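INFO batch 0412 | record 1 of 1 | parsing
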Amino acid sequence: MAAHTLDAAVRFEKALQTPAHIYISTRARVLLGVTSPTPAVAQAYFNKLAGTKRLATETGAGQWGSSLALACALFGLECAVYMVEGEL
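INFO prediction complete | emitting tokens
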């Protein structure tokens, strides 16, 4: 995952008609969550080295499941994500 960076929100500044400089964190736009991809990639990598073909996990809000699915895709592993009915 890329390092934390900031983007200038120039159009937002103009819309607010403010002399202030406003910046938006690029991490706020990461759909997988901020911290989930890092351990998911490590988990998929080490499972690939161990010869694992398929990973399965449960997820609550979906960030961990999405992150693990992406990590599995990066390493050619199958992935099953289960979500409890109450979270749908």
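INFO post-check: DSSP finds three helices and four strands in the chain.
INFO record closed
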